[in-house]
Design a protein that fits this description.
This protein is α/β, with parallel strands linked by helices. The chain is built from 14 helices and 26 strands.
């Protein structure tokens, strides 16, 4: 089944608005019709089974393009609209992309090859105005790739996670089940749709016939609080920094009444216990769901039911419906309760593999099990706890960051002999970035710090710039010659 048809199975004729808000609204019925028109255009002029990029903030433009690509039998590649040019060039070449949906507001930031067809908002509207809903058929099997979500890899190069139509359907069904979502639900969205967590909100609310309010300006906390109240939002989803900022930076959040807010969900990294306790003390009537997931699992792997949050505050809960967990040692042997090992997951939501990377796919998926790279432990009641991450990937405000990518930029400075990027706990970022520098010869610390920050600001996205820089006199090495981080 094409996931587009799954989304609109019960909602294609609904007159109610799917998007709510002061900037733009659109009904289910119109979204369905407009997406079919653009899908027909893509089928006629682009074909099928092609990789098509979307680079845009959350908007009706993004949603229409996304759904159209899925329906047309092509593969959607949603990208961060703040992506570096070098990363974009790599992905364009890797995916052999010929068509890009790009918001006009960011078009001037990027240089694209002349042979690539760029579709902006005005172009999309012209397609909708002139394209008929032609009949066509693209055979979709359950293992056909629906989207490729690029994440930071351990080498610094992005890795493309291939998500199938079946993956999305399976994960969406599970999330709807445990969150008890219905057509009455309204989600305040601050998470970007290029992120699997953000996409899961889009998927679930399309499926149940709920609605969404898009807020792309989380820095204006008053607007977020107003949106939740004014549009009677029943749900809010965020990464740790969202909750930390609302609790610590807003003067009014904890004293505001949200009579319609039924639940909140938190994923994208560990939110410290102190913030969870602060939230549930301020809002005891609002259900707080702690969740754990990976892009490689479409979005979600586990959740902690709100009724257990006080007794199991630091737990990631239990597997979502239709997903299985086990913990294994280095030999692959299954471990029992209270034994540390790598967390493995299995279910229909597990990715097909990494795009054009058979070696990494075989390392990550073995006998149907996803090797998460996270060290975990299970208690006697079957609740799981994360102990550490085996992989070096950092999570800053919920976004995956490769240390090697930042190290490469800083090491390009002639004065720098060595650079080690690591993470540390931070109240705002969740995990912030520390750069430990070994410089050549004599140097001025403040001047070198400024030079490092300057080159990082030119070469990296804002969230990848180190929050702290410290200096060491020499590289620390183990007896085997390996660098000690």
């Amino acid at each position: 089944m094409n996931v587009f048809d799954y989304f609109f199975e019960s909602s294609q004729h609904l007159e109610k608005d799917f998007l709510l808000g002061s900037k733009e609204t659109i009904s289910f019925k119109n979204l369905y019709k407009q997406s079919l028109k653009v899908a027909a255009f893509l089928n006629r002029y682009v074909g099928a089974h092609k990789n098509i990029l979307i680079i845009s903030p959350n908007s009706g433009f993004f949603i229409t393009a996304y759904l159209s690509i899925l329906k047309s039998g092509n593969v959607c590649v949603p990208l961060n609209f703040a992506i570096e040019q070098e990363q974009l060039d790599y992905i364009l070449k890797e995916t052999e992309c010929e068509t890009v949906f790009m918001a006009k507001s960011i078009r001037d930031k990027y240089m694209l090859p002349s042979e690539i067809q760029v579709i902006e908002e005005l172009d999309l509207q012209q397609i909708i105005d002139h394209q008929a809903m032609d009949d066509y058929y693209v055979d979709i099997n359950k293992n056909q790739v629906a989207e490729i979500i690029f994440t930071s890899g351990s080498t610094g190069l992005p890795k493309g996670v291939m998500i199938t139509h079946e993956n999305i359907i399976a994960n969406t069904n599970s999330i709807i089940s445990y969150l008890k979502l219905t057509s009455k639900d309204i989600m305040c969205v601050v998470l970007p749709f290029y992120y699997c967590y953000g996409l899961s909100l889009l998927h679930t609310h399309l499926r149940v016939g709920g609605s969404m309010v898009l807020n792309n300006s989380f820095m204006f906390l008053g607007a977020v609080i107003s949106d939740i109240k004014d549009y009677k939002c029943t749900g809010f989803a965020g990464v740790p920094s969202h909750f930390q900022i609302l609790l610590k930076k807003s003067n009014s959040f904890k004293t505001t009444a949200f009579p319609d807010l039924r639940y909140v969900t938190q994923a994208g990294g560990k939110l410290h216990t102190i913030f969870i306790e602060e939230f549930i003390d301020a809002f005891p009537e609002i259900d707080f769901y702690i969740m754990y997931g990976q892009t490689e699992a479409t979005a979600r792997l586990s959740y902690l039911e709100p009724k257990h949050i006080k007794a199991k505050t630091s737990s990631i809960g239990k597997p979502i419906p239709k997903v299985s967990f086990k913990i294994v040692d280095e030999t692959g042997k299954k471990l029992g309760a209270n034994k540390e090992g790598e967390l493995l997951a299995k279910g229909k939501n597990i990715m097909l593999g990494y795009y054009k990377d058979v070696v990494e796919t075989k390392k990550t998926i073995k006998n149907g099990w996803l090797y998460t790279g996270d060290v975990a432990i299970m208690d006697n009641e079957g609740f799981y706890y994360l102990v550490a991450r085996k992989k070096e990937i950092l999570k800053v405000t919920g976004k995956r960051v490769s240390p090697k990518e930042i190290e490469a930029v800083i090491l390009s400075l002639e004065e720098v002999m060595d650079c080690t990027i690591s993470g540390y706990d931070d109240d705002v970022f969740g995990e912030a970035i520390l750069a430990t520098i070994v410089a050549k010869g004599t140097f001025n610390e403040e001047q070198l710090k400024e030079k490092i920050l300057h080159i990082c600001s030119k070469k990296l996205a804002m969230y990848k710039i180190p929050q702290k820089i410290c200096f060491e006199k020499a590289i620390k090495m183990s007896a085997s010659g390996k660098k000690i981080k």
